[in-house]
Amino acid sequence: MTADTANQENASRDRIEQTILSAAEQVFSQHGYRGASLQAIADQAKLPKANILYYMGSKQALYVRLLNRMMSRWNAVLEDITAESDPGQVLSDFIRTKMVLGQRYPEGSKLFAAEILAGAPFLKEYLSGELKEWVASRAAIIRQWSQQGKMDDVDPRWLIFLIWSATQHYTEYSAQVTGILGETALSDADLTSICEFLEHVILKGCGIARTAPAHAIL
Amino acid sequence: MTADTANQENASRDRIEQTILSAAEQVFSQHGYRGASLQAIADQAKLPKANILYYMGSKQALYVRLLNRMMSRWNAVLEDITAESDPGQVLSDFIRTKMVLGQRYPEGSKLFAAEILAGAPFLKEYLSGELKEWVASRAAIIRQWSQQGKMDDVDPRWLIFLIWSATQHYTEYSAQVTGILGETALSDADLTSICEFLEHVILKGCGIARTAPAHAIL
DNA sequence: GATTGTTCTGACCGATCGGTCAATAATGTT
DNA sequence: AACATTATTGACCGATCGGTCAGAACAATC
Question: Which of B2, B149, B158, B164 could form a Cys-Cys staple with A197, CB 3.0–4.6 A?
Fold first, then answer.
C-alpha cells in the first residue's frame, strides 16, 4: 500500500465516518441515547444498518465518540484568562463564543443536553473531574476580579451557570423560541440583538463597565 | 352505585393513576418519549405492563396527559401584572416562582425539556398558540415599564427567555450542576444564594432599583 | 491472473417494543 | 343467590431493537 493509496483510503473512510457521525448526531440529539435507533441513523446516513456497525462497532461506541467530539470543540473557551484580564472583555467574549458555538453545532449541543437530562450516565466522571476543575479555576479568577473591585461580589459559579444557560437556551430550546417568535429559525439580527441584551444585562448586573463597543456576531 | 362507593372507587382509581403518572414522569423525563418503554414504567410503578395500558390507553395518551398536567402547573405565573406593577417586585417574584416550580416538579420540568429537545412534536401548536400569546402580552407590559422609565429599554422577549433559562438550568441540568459542585443535590442554602444572585444581576442589569429585601426561598 | 486483505450488505438471531385479548378475580347492584 | 360491571394480568401478536455473520464485491500486491 503506497502513501497515496493509503491517503485515499483513509480519506474515503473518513468521509464515510463523518457522514455517519453527522447522521447519528441528528438522531441522538432528537431522541437521546435510548430513543435513537441504528436503523434511523442508517436511514439518515443513507447506508445499510450493518454498515454503521462495521464502521462504529456498536451503538454505545458511536455515541461516546459523538460526545467526545462535542467536548473537544469546547476546549478553547475561557482558557487564557488571568487575574489581570478585563472582566468586561472576557465575559463579553464568553457570551459571544458560547452563542456562536451553540449556533454552529446545534445538534452536538442538543446531544450534550439530552445526555445531561438522562442523568449524564456517560459523562458523570467528566463533569465531576475535568469540568469541575475547569469551573473551580475560572471561579477563582473571577473572585480575584471581585476582590480587586473590578466587579460586584457575586458567586462566580452562579455567574458561569447563568451564561451557560442563557446562551444554550437558544439552541436547545430552539423549538420553543422559534415557536414563540413565530419564525422558522433565529435570524442574524435576532442573534446580534440577543448577544447585546445578554452583555448589557449580565455586565451591568455584575457591576462591570462596558469597555468595548458591541460588534456584529457573525 | 351510591355516592360513597363512587367516591371510594374513584379514589382508588385516582390513586393508581397517580402512581402510574408519577412513575411515567420519571421514565419519560430521563429518556424522552421514544426512549421510554412501557415495561420500564410498569416496573417503576410496580404494576404489570397490561395494567398501565388498561388505565392509560396507550403510550401516547399517557405522555400527552403528563404534558398537560405539567402545563397546568404553570398557569398562575405572571398572570395578574399590569403597566402599573412594580417591575422589581414582579421580576423578583417571577424568578423565585420559576425556581420553586422547577424544584417542586423536577421530573415534569425535565419531561418538558425533553419534549422541546425532540422538536416539540406534541407541543408545537401550544408553543405557537397559547404560549406565544402569553409571551406577547407580558412583553407588551414590560415594554410599557421601559417607556415609563421604570427600567432599561431591553427586549422583553429576551428578558423572559433569560429568566426561563437561568432558572430551569438548575433542574434540567441538575446532573451537571451537582457534578460540578461536588454535591448530590442542591441545598436550601444553594437555592437561596442562586435566587439572590439572579435577582441581583437581572434586576440591576435591567436598571431596576431593588424595592423589597431578599427573603428565604423555602 | 491468482492471492490477499478490506469493504460492504442481506439474512438472520434472541430480546424487547407497543398493544391486544381472553380468562379470571373482585366488586357492585338487584 | 344471581347477575353485571370493572379490575387484573399472563399469554401472545407483529414489528423493531442492537448485534452477528457469511459471503459477495472490491481493491491492492505480486
Answer: B158
